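Supplementary Methods. Inverse-folding protocol.

Structures were first reduced to a discrete structure-token string of length 472. This string, shown here, constituted the complete conditioning input.
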């Protein structure tokens, strides 16, 4: 279907889901109320026991709409519920619903705990969570089935002209047949090298064409530019298939730079609400960590470092951040003060492949430094780097600039995302992993990044830190 109509249908879908969520929440309270009568138990409301089988009236739950109604659809959109490919099937749909519902439910529970709303039943929230998944899944199946059947019956079909070689046109036409939900029907095919500028206007005048799809190679661009201008004059949408630049992993997006259309190829996550939430999560995590753990860690560690070895408490080192931009990364000092000068003498004992230096029994590490490294407490000051935006809670570890100078070209792609405190490497064995495998794990993180992946890495980091797996 033409892009504007597709965007409109997505917006209608989002509004419908928000209304459905509101109805399901009200029904969840009604069901919980009925269950309370069938299975009565004492309930405390404003500190006083009420009649058996009573729960707080729905008016006390209405304010939760302020959280649920904007957050739930936002999470669905964030997880790709409205932009997903239909070919991914039911399992993908259910997984998106489960993730979105879980985060929304946790947010509601947290709000109830934070505002001390003991009068509200958690059972209502649990029932709502379960019923919302079922309702949204059923509605999505019905909606997609309706759109597909409507397309198969020829309702609201948009006639399109394919412009490309015979092979390209056949391939694209087959793709459209496999996806009738797009409501596109091929009405004509043109060869860009065979009187395109003469035949296209004739077909635009003779047929009810709503869209022209240009699926061509680079050699035909001079003619295509004129053909697109002809579509512009006729008021017909023109789509340009952007596979003329062959890439292996880069994703193509379209943007506008002050009237100049841009085709952008990127291997990193595009700027989105997910990245904005990642930054907010970084700030919140750093503030909580510094506020809660700071008083317990800073003073004792500072005193012991001062008592056990001469030198400063903190160690600042230049590291390569996003796109290689230099910043100062802070750690609790775990080595002697001239550690950088002594490294050259120890190069022969390096136990890691590649340009990095790792040594199991590094003589530069102080006695207390061994404890700091084994427990990862030496990394605690990097929460400040996270707070100011040089680092993230999750991301590839920031390398030393001299190490970057010896990177292979494919290694450098790990610099395309902001460095972090922990990543897949940390939860997979750290220094027990070869350098190239380490780089591959970082690229795997970049290629598959999502907020959900960050949460899983953070959860798996906790036992790794507690056990000291792979730490040196």
């Amino acid at each position: 279907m033409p892009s504007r109509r597709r965007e409109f249908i997505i917006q209608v879908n989002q509004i419908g889901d928000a209304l459905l969520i509101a109805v399901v929440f009200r029904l969840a309270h009604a069901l919980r109320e009925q269950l309370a009568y069938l299975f009565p138990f004492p309930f405390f409301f404003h500190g006083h026991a009420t009649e058996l089988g009573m729960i707080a009236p729905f008016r006390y739950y209405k304010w939760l709409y302020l959280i649920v109604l904007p957050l739930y659809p936002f999470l669905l959109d964030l997880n790709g519920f409205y932009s997903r490919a239909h070919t991914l099937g039911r399992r993908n749909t259910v997984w998106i619903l489960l993730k979105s519902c879980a985060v929304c439910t946790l947010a509601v529970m947290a709000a109830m705990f934070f505002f001390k709303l003991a009068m509200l039943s958690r059972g209502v929230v649990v029932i709502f969570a379960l019923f919302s998944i079922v309702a949204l899944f059923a509605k999505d199946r019905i909606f997609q089935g309706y759109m597909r059947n409507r397309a198969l019956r020829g309702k609201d079909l948009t006639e399109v002209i394919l412009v490309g070689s015979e092979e390209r046109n056949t391939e694209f036409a087959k793709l459209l047949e496999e996806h009738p939900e797009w409501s596109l029907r091929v009405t004509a095919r043109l060869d860009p090298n065979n009187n395109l500028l003469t035949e296209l206007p004739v077909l635009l005048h003779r047929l009810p064409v709503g869209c022209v799809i240009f699926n061509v190679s680079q050699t035909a661009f001079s003619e295509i530019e004129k053909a697109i201008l002809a579509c512009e004059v006729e008021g017909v949408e023109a789509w340009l298939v952007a596979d003329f630049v062959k890439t292996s992993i880069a994703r193509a997006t379209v943007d506008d730079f002050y009237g100049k259309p841009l085709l952008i190829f990127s291997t990193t996550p595009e700027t989105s609400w997910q990245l904005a939430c990642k930054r907010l999560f970084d700030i919140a995590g750093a503030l909580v960590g510094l506020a809660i753990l700071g008083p317990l860690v800073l003073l004792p560690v500072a005193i012991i470092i001062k008592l056990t070895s001469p030198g400063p408490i903190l160690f600042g080192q230049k590291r390569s951040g996003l796109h290689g931009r230099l910043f100062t990364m802070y750690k609790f000092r775990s080595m002697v003060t001239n550690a950088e000068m002594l490294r050259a003498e120890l190069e022969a004992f390096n136990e890691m492949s590649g340009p990095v230096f790792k040594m199991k029994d590094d003589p530069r590490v102080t006695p207390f430094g061994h404890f700091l490294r084994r427990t990862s407490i030496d990394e605690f000051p990097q929460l400040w780097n996270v707070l100011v935006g040089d680092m993230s809670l999750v991301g590839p570890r920031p390398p030393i600039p001299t190490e970057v100078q010896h990177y292979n070209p494919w290694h450098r792609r790990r610099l395309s995302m902001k460095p972090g405190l922990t990543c897949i490497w940390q939860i997979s064995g750290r220094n027990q992993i070869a350098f190239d495998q380490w780089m591959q794990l970082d690229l795997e993180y970049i290629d598959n990044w999502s907020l959900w992946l960050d949460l899983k890495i953070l959860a798996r980091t906790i036992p790794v830190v507690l056990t000291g797996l792979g730490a040196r």
